[in-house]
Every structure is written in structure tokens, then in C-alpha cells.
Design a protein that fits this description.
The complex is a heterotrimer of chains A (331), B (320) and C (325).
Chain A lengths: L16 H14 L1 H18 L16 H13 L27 H37 L1 H16 L2 H11 L4 H29 L2 H9 L3 H38 L10 H10 L2 H4 L2 H29 L17
Chain B lengths: L1 H23 L6 H10 L5 H11 L6 H13 L12 H36 L4 H15 L2 H15 L17 H38 L2 H8 L4 H14 L3 H6 L1 H14 L5 H10 L3 H29 L1 H4 L2
Chain C lengths: L5 E11 L4 E12 L4 E5 L6 H8 L7 E10 L2 E2 L5 H7 L4 E4 L3 H4 L6 H11 L5 H14 L16 H12 L6 E5 L7 H18 L2 E6 L2 H5 L4 E6 L2 E7 H6 L4 H8 L49 E3 L2 E3 L13
Parallel strand pairs in C: 3-8, 3-9, 6-7, 7-8
Antiparallel strand pairs in C: 1-2, 1-4, 4-5, 9-10, 10-12, 11-12
The chains are: A mainly alpha (331), B mainly alpha (320), C alpha/beta (325).
Chain lengths: 331, 320, 325
């Protein structure tokens, strides 16, 4: 920063985590984007944890009464058309989002898939962030040959395009169930975060307080966990949020194409795929296609808002400047 | 010179690693099982079975021999034939120009747009446009690519009928103006989708980098010297914001290429992405392998070019 | 008596944030004659750099000038907008910053950075530009082949001198310098200072020199202004300040420097630390640390008032309580 950056306001350094949590919460609540993102996420979390409060119908059984189906078939025969009694349009209150090809309730499916998608996404994001941190920080701290090896591995995985690799791997591991999906997504997503964290780790590594710790005789573990990681926490959280945005979109995209759909495990991506396969858009229940798509965008946006806001919280230079302005442009 | 040598060595090394990975992955499963998976979908003719067997090696074949055979094949661009007996290379050449056109143009536009909007957002920080546009653009561009593609398709193609919804062209392409216009017309929605997806992250990065450079001393110095705002923005701020990030933008290529698969699928745009999807769905191993390799090499080349460009433009890297 | 080159009246600079406003520069009055070398000294955080940038109209948000005037060449710089300022910038006054490594564009060669300055002020002929660039480099003793160099290729001392050369491109009337020697070693510092003084005497420009190192600047400055917590507490000729510092803070500063000559004596610092400018103490700002503090100092603020040829802000030399702050 310029010579002008003088410490005019002297806040005492708050070292207790209690105060840190309080500060972060206050910052989140004051930032509109963060609040919105958090609210959106909590809504989905609520739906995932308490599906029964939204719908009482089963998600994998036909919900259309046989009488209705019979009637529909009769009508079709009478009109000389081939009976096609599925994908009923939204009908209140029986099936507010209509039914699927097998006459399952779309709303119930959506609600059920929320839990699966949310859980899977968070699990993948956590794994990816964990691996990124381990690889990135180790590479930064180890230096020399260790760094060279890890950086090279990271670069290789970074260069190989993610979606093609995902498609290839998920085809071969199709029998692996949801675990395979988690594995495949994790292995294609960790490299980006690792690179970022290594870069930041390198810049922190040369800082003097680390030298001080080493001179004090602290063990490497201490240095890593008590000195380096806390300083990287903002970037780690940012990496987690950014990864989540990416995972939501990519997993749905993969399943949309028809890969990575596991039998009993219904995610939003799978719903999109199934509705596409059943021509929901052209000749069926359009809400079967639209509702999971909107859900995916909703979750992605909530993470994106949190990510955007978190960047502003962590880096004050990015914050909105709402001061009274003189007649001069910014900077 | 040393720099070029080092970068080339890194390039070749990474290329080798990617080739090897491409070789290993299909063989993650035991030979017979893989064979079974790939051949069961078709009523494979004995010739196709033999080809697959040659690819995977019968149970007893030495993997090392197979590996070097594979490497040799890659270097001589011998990728075999697809399941319908068309040489893989031919099929790729058919789809290549479409994808290069679509992805190439979209990337250039995305980069330009991202840079300009990022610059504008940082310069006019706190203004109406920045406070509204920045988060809005950011959100829109973090939408999943297939979401953007489907929405654009639904709204402008299906509902409004403003644009065609499939194929790269209506009539086989010629060199006429009408044909070129037709191609552009068909490519418009897919291109917009790709640009929206690619530009977003770049706008955000550019804006943040510009904000960082604008608070640097040399920008203040430029102001002190009485330079025009435009000169400050371009030569002092943007130049220092972009240069360290060129390589990062190049690494995004993988993301863009992946996105092109989704976009081409949605719009039935018969480029390489569409081929890749088809090849995988129809269990066409030779085609899939070749395309995967092509994608990887493309990203590698892009990154290499970005590295060289950075070295050429950023004086600090030359002495590194 | 010639009219002053620069006259600052009641200048106030605030850092405006969402939660509070912090006044970094509080009602500063200054005047500068043509060709004069004025040094502003003070601790880190006293606001001297802020003052400097305010005068040069180079503040960035959240800092802004909230009151006062800066009369330069007959015009009030505070009232001018960027367009009008641009005509004055560099041609009438220029700036030398603390760290040349940060102040020079790392991706442009020296020649390019000289060139864009000259082009911005109307010189377009590349021959002229090149000739002038070589000329100013020669002034500071840098060989012309370094025109093609990039900042990171030069040594620290050379970079600083290149910055000074750049500042002299249009032989301005005033050169403002923000601690230009602090990035150098002791020998380099001395050498740079000598060069600056030499150039000043040769070309006749005035200098405002901000530093925390009083002893360094004392050989070269005509007048010294001592700054504390955003206010000027003493302004005097260098000689008289060193011979007889009036303000207790100035005295404390001088006592903190060892003298090479003379009897050895124990060094005394100034106990305590500068006040939090977000909540400055009532009354005199130095009062909490002042060894000569009186009762009135805790409740009332003194003015910067003349005492002989100097200006001092201290109740030791005033009796009436000053205006309420």
C-alpha cells in the first residue's frame, strides 16, 4: 500500500475466535449479498432436512389414481389417438408440479433430490477443498523437489479438461454408484484450488513471522496449523465456496448429458436428464424439466452470492464505497 | 532462450503425462471387462471385436508393449476407425472447423468483453452501473452453462423463433456470403451461451485485479504526471492487471471446451463436442480417446502460447 | 517581499469510512517561498504523507480534503477539477515518491515512462522526447543507455534518481518529495540528498520534503515544520529549530538523536505513543506525553502562533485559550 496507509484507527488485535466469529457474522449480516445467499442456502437446507414438511407423497411411486389413468386412456381411444397417460401437467393440490413419465410426483421428486444433491455437493466440495489445502500448502511449505512434484501433478490435472475427463471416467466407473460420482468429481476439481492455495502459501511462507516461529524452535506442524493456515483461512473459505458453485453446475451438467446417473439416487441433474429423455419439453410436462433446472440455478446462485460477498468481506479493498463523493472519479 | 527451453520441456512433459493418463484410464478395469463393456452395446462384427481386442490387448498381452504401440499410434496420428468403419481422423476433421469457429470466436469475444467490462467496473467503482452490473453479471455467468443454453434456446429459439435451434447450417456450406451469414445465424445462440459462461469469471477477475492495481503507487504517480484517464487505465492499470493472469485465462480453456460439449449437445451443433458426446454414448472408444487427447493438447497449446505471450509482454518474467 | 509560491490555509483531510470519519490533517497552515527547501518531519502516522498528497491533489478514497485552500501559482488547487489540474500537473509541480520500485510502472521502460509524460503535455516529436530524456538523466548522473531499462533492472539508488529525473522533466517550480531516501542505505541517502540540493540550487525549484529522519534533512533544508497527530506544532528555520527547539515535542525529537560531536549524554525518547486520531485527546494533542504539560493543556487547544521568527503551537508561549476545535 502507499506510504499514505497510516494506522490511524487502532483497533486492538482480536485474537479470540469468539470475537472472530462475531465479527464475521456481523459482516455477513451487513452485506446484502451475503445475507441473500445465506437465506437461499438455508431454504434449500431446510427442504433437504425436513422433506416431510413440504410433501407427504412418495417420490418413487405413481401418484395418479388409477381411475384418472383409466379415464385418460378411454378418452384417448375415443379420440382415435394413442394413449399416452403420463407426464400430467400441474394439478393442485394433487401434484403441484405435475408428474413424470412414470407418473411420479415431480414435487416429491424435487424435494427428495434436494437432500441428495445438497449432501453430495457439500461432500464433494469439502473433499476437494481438503485435498487442495493439503496439496497446496504442502507444496508451498516443502519447497524443492516436493514442491516440484506436487506442482507438476497439479498442472497436469489442471490442463486436462474437466468435463471430458468426467465423462470418460464416469463411463468406466458407471457401476460404482454415488461413490464413483463423488470420486470422479473430486479428482477432476481439486487442481484449481491447489494452485491458488500454493500461490498464497508461497507468499505467506516468506513472511517474517514464520521465520520468527522457526527461530523460536516451533515444530513444522505447529507452524503449519497455528501460523500458516489461520492466515489462509479467507482464501480456503473462498475456495470452498467457489468450488461449490462449480460442483453444482458441473455435476448437473454431467448428469444432464446422461452420464453419472445412478439408479436409485435421484439428483436434480438426474431429473433433468430423465425429463429430457422423455421429451418433457416438447410434448410432456414442462415443469418436470424446469423445476430441477431452476433448483440448480438457485443453489448455484446462493453459493455464488456467498462467494462474491465473502471476497468483499475478506478483502476490504473490494467493498462498495458508499461515501459522499466529491467531484472526482474513483482513484 | 532458457525460458523458452524450460517451457517447452514442461509442455512436452505434461503432454506425455496426459497421453499416459489417456492410455491408463480405459484400462482401469480388467481387460475382459472393458472389452465386454465396449462391445456389448453393438452387435459387434468380428472385425470390430478384433479391433477392440487389439486396442485393449487380449488378456495376455504385455501392457508395456501395448503402451508403446499406443504412443507410436498417437505420434503418427493413427487413431484407428470408429465403430462405423470411418477413420477417426476423418470424422474429427469434419467436426473440427465448426468447433474451432464457435469456440475460437466465443473465446476472443469473451476475453475482450471481460477485459473491457472488468476495466469499466473497476474504474467506475461505486457508481450505479458497477453496483448493479457487477453482481448481476457475476450471478448470470455462474449459472450452469447448460442452464444458460437451455434458457436461451427456449426463449429465443423455441418460444420466439428468432433463431434456429439446431445444426450449424441449414444448407450445406459454400463460400458465398449467404452461406456465411447462415452459418453465423446458426452459431449465434451457441456463441452467446459460451461467451456468457466464459466472460463472467474473467470480468470478475479483471475487475478485482484492476481495483488492486488502481490502488498501487505507480497509478498515483501516473495521475501526478497528468496522464489522461484512458492512458492510466490502459497502460498502467490494465496492463499490470492482465499480464500476470494471461496464463490463468488460458487454463480456463479446459472449462470452455467442456462447456462447448454441453452447448453443442443442446443445439445439436455438429462440432467436436457433439462428436464426443455421441462417441461416448455409442461406446465408440477410438473416437472418444482421440477427441479426449485432442482436447487436452488444445489446452496445453493454449497455456504454452499464454506463457510465451506473458514472457514477451511482461519484462519481469524474462529475468526470472 | 515576493509573494509565496505556495500557501496552504486551514487544510483538513478526513478519511471517510462507513463507521466514522478520521481527521488525518487538522487545519494546517503553510507557506513556501520560491526556491525554498521546506522539510516536514514527524513520526510515522502523524499525517505528513497525507498532507503532502493533499497539497498535490493526489489523495485516493477514502481520504478527501474536507476544508481549506491550497494557493499555488495564484490558483486554489482544491477548487480545481481533474481537467484543470492536469494542465498544472508535472509542468508546474511534480512529485517524487517513497519507493521507486512501487512508483514506476514495472511493465514499461524508463523511456516509455518519460515519453508518456511528455506526450501528455504536448511534446510529440520523438527526437525532442529522447533528447530531453537523456538530458534529465544526465542531470542525475544516469547513463542514457538505461533509457531502455525496466525498473526492476536498476539498482535502488538509480531508481530513485530516475524518479527525480522524471520529476524535473519540465523544470517545475515545486517538487514534492515523500521520504525519497528511506528505501536507501545511509551512504545512498546522503548521496541522493546532496544531489537533490545541488539540483535545487542549479534549477531553482522549491522543495517540500517529508521525512521522519530529522537529522538527515537538517543539512539541506531552509525551514523545518514539525508535525504531530495531524497538526503542525512548530515551523522554524532549520538553524533556529536545532539551536533552540521551542515546542516540547521538537525538543524531544532532537534529544532522541545522538550527536557525533559534543559531550556524551543519555538518549531520551518520548514516552507514550501518538494518539488515536479517531478519538483525539481534548485540548493539546501532545499533552498526554508532554513533560511540560500545564492544566490548561488538557482542556484547550493552542493556536500556531508566531514566536519570534518561528511559529509554535504551545501554551508555553501563549496565554489565551484558543478557538474551540
Amino acid at each position: 500500500m502507499a506510504a499514505i496507509d497510516t494506522t490511524l484507527t487502532r483497533k486492538p488485535p482480536s485474537s479470540s475466535s469468539h470475537q472472530a466469529v462475531a465479527r464475521v457474522s456481523k459482516a455477513i449480516l451487513r452485506n446484502r449479498k451475503a445475507t441473500l445467499g445465506l437465506v437461499m442456502f438455508l431454504i434449500l437446507l431446510f427442504v433437504a432436512l425436513f422433506p416431510d414438511l413440504i410433501t407427504s407423497k412418495p417420490w418413487n411411486e405413481s401418484v395418479v389414481p388409477p381411475a384418472v389413468i383409466a379415464q385418460c386412456q378411454q378418452d384417448a381411444v375415443a379420440a382415435g389417438k394413442v394413449p399416452n397417460c403420463s407426464q400430467f401437467p400441474p394439478t393442485w393440490p394433487d401434484y403441484p408440479l405435475g408428474t413424470t413419465q412414470l407418473n411420479y410426483d415431480v414435487l416429491s421428486q424435487l424435494v427428495h433430490a434436494t437432500g441428495v444433491t445438497l449432501f453430495t455437493t457439500l461432500l464433494i466440495s469439502l473433499l476437494v477443498t481438503a485435498i487442495s489445502v493439503v496439496v497446496g500448502v504442502t507444496a508451498a511449505y516443502a519447497g524443492g523437489r516436493g514442491d516440484l512434484g506436487l506442482s507438476f501433478t497439479t498442472d497436469v490435472f489442471l490442463v486436462i479438461p474437466a468435463l471430458p475427463l468426467l465423462i470418460v471416467l464416469s463411463t468406466y466407473l458407471a457401476s460404482g454408484g454415488i461413490a464413483a460420482i463423488v470420486f470422479v468429481m473430486t479428482i477432476t476439481s481439486w487442481a484449481f484450488g491447489a494452485r491458488q492455495l500454493r500461490a498464497q502459501g508461497m507468499s505467506i511462507r516468506s513472511k517474517e513471522f514464520l521465520e520468527a516461529a522457526r527461530v523460536r524452535g516451533e515444530r513444522s506442524w505447529y507452524v503449519i496449523f497455528a501460523e500458516i493456515l489461520p492466515n489462509m483461512l479467507p482464501l480456503i473459505v473462498a475456495a470452498f465456496l467457489g468450488t461449490s458453485v462449480y460442483v453444482v453446475a458441473t455435476m448437473a451438467g454431467l448428469q444432464f448429458l446422461g452420464f453419472g446417473n445412478v439408479g436409485d439416487t435421484l439428483t436434480w441433474g438426474t431429473m433433468i436428464y430423465q425429463s429430457q429423455q422423455s421429451m418433457a419439453l416438447e410434448s410432456g410436462n414442462i415443469w418436470w424439466l424446469l423445476s430441477p433446472i431452476i433448483a440448480v440455478a438457485f443453489l448455484g446462485t446462493s453459493f455464488a452470492l456467498l462467494n462474491y460477498a465473502f471476497d468483499e468481506i475478506a478483502n476490504p479493498a473490494l467493498r462498495k464505497s458508499n461515501r459522499r463523493r466529491r467531484a472526482q472519479p474513483a482513484a | 532462450m532458457r525460458f523458452i527451453g524450460r517451457r517447452m520441456a514442461l509442455f512436452l512433459l505434461t503432454l506425455w503425462a496426459a497421453l499416459t493418463l489417456n492410455f491408463i484410464i480405459p484400462r482401469l478395469m480388467p481387460g475382459d471387462a472393458a472389452l465386454a463393456m465396449w462391445s456389448h452395446i453393438h452387435n459387434a462384427t468380428p472385425a470390430q471385436l478384433a479391433a477392440l481386442e487389439a486396442e485393449f490387448g487380449a488378456a495376455g498381452q504385455n501392457p508395456v508393449v501395448a503402451y508403446f504401440g499406443y504412443l507410436g499410434n498417437c505420434l503418427t496420428l493413427n487413431f484407428g476407425v470408429t465403430t462405423d468403419q470411418v477413420p477417426v481422423v476423418t470424422k474429427i476433421m469434419q467436426g473440427l472447423p465448426w468447433t474451432i469457429g464457435l469456440v475460437g470466436v466465443s473465446t476472443v469475444i469473451a476475453f475482450a468483453l471481460g477485459t473491457l467490462l472488468g476495466m469499466y467496473g473497476a474504474w467506475r467503482r461505486g457508481s450505479w452501473t458497477d453496483n448493479l452490473l457487477s453482481p448481476l453479471l457475476f450471478i448470470v455467468t455462474t449459472f450452469p452453462i447448460f442452464f444458460l443454453g437451455l434458457v436461451l434456446l427456449l426463449v429465443f429459439g423455441v418460444a420466439l423463433h428468432w433463431f434456429p435451434t439446431n445444426h450449424p447450417y441449414s444448407t450445406p456450406p459454400t463460400l458465398s456470403v449467404a452461406s456465411v451469414a447462415d452459418i453465423g445465424y446458426h452459431a449465434f445462440l451457441p456463441a452467446v451461451t459460451l461467451v456468457l459462461a466464459a466472460a463472467g469469471g474473467w470480468i470478475y477477475t479483471m475487475r478485482n485485479n484492476m481495483i488492486a492495481t488502481l490502488s498501487e503507487d505507480y497509478v498515483r504517480m501516473a495521475r501526478a504526471k497528468g496522464l489522461s484517464s484512458w492512458r492510466i487505465m490502459v497502460s498502467y492499470s490494465a496492463r499490470n492487471a492482465i499480464l500476470p493472469n494471461l496464463t490463468g485465462f488460458a487454463m480456463q480453456m479446459g472449462f470452455i471446451l467442456g462447456g462447448s460439449i454441453l452447448v453443442e449437445y443442446i443445439y445439436s451443433y455438429q462440432g467436436l463436442g457433439y462428436l464426443f458426446y455421441q462417441g461416448t454414448s455409442s461406446r465408440d472408444l477410438p473416437l472418444q480417446q482421440a477427441l479426449f487427447l485432442l482436447y487436452t493438447v488444445a489446452v496445453l497449446i493454449f497455456v504454452l502460447l499464454a506463457d510465451f505471450l506473458t514472457a514477451w509482454l511482461d519484462p519481469r518474467t524474462r529475468t526470472a | 517581499m515576493p509573494s509565496p509560491l505556495l500557501e496552504v490555509r486551514g487544510l483538513c483531510v478526513d478519511y471517510v469510512t462507513e463507521t466514522m470519519d478520521v481527521r488525518a490533517v487538522d487545519h494546517v497552515d503553510l507557506s513556501l517561498e520560491p526556491g525554498e527547501f521546506l522539510a516536514i518531519v514527524g513520526e510515522s502516522g502523524c499525517g505528513k504523507s497525507t498532507l503532502l498528497f493533499a497539497i498535490a491533489r493526489l489523495l485516493s478514497p477514502p481520504a478527501e480534503i474536507s476544508a481549506g485552500s491550497v494557493m499555488f501559482a495564484g490558483r486554489n488547487l482544491v477548487a480545481l477539477d481533474e481537467e484543470e489540474l492536469r494542465a498544472l500537473r508535472w509542468s508546474d509541480y511534480s512529485v517524487v515518491m517513497q519507493s521507486a520500485m512501487n512508483a514506476l510502472n514495472p511493465t514499461l521502460s524508463l523511456a516509455a515512462q518519460f515519453r508518456d509524460t511528455m506526450e501528455a503535455h504536448g511534446t510529440v516529436s520523438s527526437a525532442e522526447i529522447r533528447a530531453r530524456s537523456i538530458e534529465v538523466l544526465r542531470l542525475v548522473g544516469i547513463d542514457e543507455l538505461h533509457l531502455a531499462s525496466y525498473p526492476h533492472q536498476l539498482s535502488g539508488g538509480m531508481r530513485q534518481r530516475a524518479m527525480i529525473a522524471m520529476a524535473l522533466l519540465f523544470t517545475p517550480d515545486l517538487v514534492i518529495m515523500d521520504e525519497p531516501t528511506s528505501a536507501l542505505d545511509v551512504v545512498g541517502q546522503r548521496s541522493l540528498m546532496t544531489q537533490i540540493k545541488e539540483l535545487q540550487q542549479r534549477l531553482g525549484f522549491a522543495v517540500i520534503f517529508v521525512t521522519h529522519d530529522m537529522s538527515l534533512v537538517s543539512h539541506y533544508s531552509d525551514r523545518l515544520a514539525v508535525m504531530y497527530a495531524g497538526q503542525l506544532v512548530e515551523v522554524a528555520s532549520t538553524e533556529s529549530l536545532f539551536a533552540e527547539p521551542l515546542h516540547p515535542y521538537s525538543r524531544g525529537l532532537l534529544d532522541a538523536f545522538p550527536s557525533i560531536r559534543g559531550p556524551r549524554r543519555a538518549l531520551t525518547g518520548i514516552p507514550g505513543s501518538p494518539p488515536d486520531l479517531g478519538h483525539p485527546p481534548p485540548g493539546c494533542r501532545f499533552q498526554p506525553r508532554c513533560p511540560m504539560a500545564m492544566e490548561v493543556c488538557a482542556t484547550a487547544s493552542p493556536d500556531l502562533a508566531p514566536v519570534g521568527q518561528s511559529l509554535v503551537q504551545c501554551f508555553l508561549y501563549q496565554t489565551e485559550p484558543a478557538r474551540a476545535v
